[in-house]
Amino acid sequence: QVQLVESGGGLVQAGGSLRLTCAASGRAFNMYAMGWFRQVPGKAREGVICNSKHGITYYLDSVKGRFTMSKDHAKSTVYLHMNNLNLEDTAIYYCARRLGRCSDNKNEYRSWGQGTQVIVSS
What is the arithmetic mean of pLDDT over 15-20? Predict the structure, then answer.
């Protein structure tokens, strides 16, 4: 069974940076799209950004120019690089995996990590 393990969350001041890590177990890493979602209490989980062999897709205009993703194929790991963080970025961040292309529909992702908390303070 595939496991996704996130790490790297924490408390950061507004304007600061964090890098989240999502390590995937299993094989055929390159066949999957890896997405990052986030959720705040009382709100639906929303797609943030996704990386597949077709490239990077942004699902939130508010993170364009501030967030990006990278992959380390040798480690089956993806990273979410978050810069110039603001208070609205406070959320639990989840990585997820689906076969093929990226999608902002969370129901199309079969594997999820446990989530990592990001708190941005003023």
Answer: 98
